[in-house]
């Protein structure tokens, strides 16, 4: 799996760096490469209304992703994962008592 480098530390396209830098919008193939996924995965997620937000743009209605929306979506995924967000770790949660349950028989 490839590691996504923060935008601020990437090289410019003119310097032979990542060609997605300097663009605000990415097509499916570029967005998939940016996320380290296959384009097919993005198509399936779009069909299921999952994954990062996308929209159609241009005369041919090509599926497009905003680069800043992809970064925001990545941050949301990190916060939703209990391994990255200790507040969501079920082991650290206080035990809950069942409603209407009596401990005596």
TrEMBL record:
Polar residues bias spans: 1-12
Domain of life according to the entry: Bacteria
Disordered: annotated segments: 1-20, 78-105
Gene3D superfamilies to which the protein is assigned, alphabetical: Winged helix-like DNA-binding domain superfamily/Winged helix DNA-binding domain (1.10.10.10)
Annotated InterPro entries: DNA-bd_dom_put_sf, HTH_17, WH-like_DNA-bd_sf
Record-annotated Helix-turn-helix domain positions: 25-77
Protein name, UniProt field: Helix-turn-helix domain-containing protein
